[in-house]
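Sharing a chain and its predicted structure for anyone who wants a worked example. Both blocks are below, sequence first, tokens second.
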Amino acid sequence: MRAIVVEDEKKMAALVQRALKEAGFLVDICARGDEAYEMLRRTPYDVAVLDIMLPGLDGLAIVKRLRAESVNTPILMLTARSGVEERIAGLETGADDYLGKPFAVEELVARVRALMRRRSGESVTLYRIGNLVMDVASRQVSRGDRRIDLTAREFALLQMFMRSVGRVFTRTQICEKVWEYHFDPGTNLVDKYVQRLRAKIEFPGESRLVHTIRNVGYCLSESAP
């Protein structure tokens, strides 16, 4: 397994590199955002640990550019800022997880391993409901003749629904399954992502697939539950 650590604080970078090496990774280190962006474009890393505050190009800009180019390397973002707004910004941009500084290296390694399990645990590669099709292997989604471009987080959300068609998920369950952390009732993160997903998979004239269950959550179904 190959990882890249993008961190301009030398001591922090060395600490994370050592921890990941002990966990069995080959680890590259980069201190500049613009250089890291080019490395992530060229090299098929299994995971990236990416600080937000970087010289050259910040972490949020890196993730946004990579996801726009369909580079779906799992990304764990690091930041010294603890505000909810920045955490949401990172996840909405396309990062897969978020860890605030200071952190225990054991937790960082555990989160990286969780990202790897989520990536390697795919057994079913094709999901279908009606004329909506998800190909996990190629990470392509289509409805009828229309191809649908999704961010990494939107893809994960849709995949969760398509794995369990007809099942009602609470907002807490969605947050824990897609973001792997406990739901914060003070944010509307889940609702915003569901709305964005709906806008992409449900065009005018097409049947509704994502249904709101009042006071409970959401489910994916060809007919209203």
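Comments welcome. The domain at 2-120 is CATH 3.40.50.2300 (Rossmann fold).
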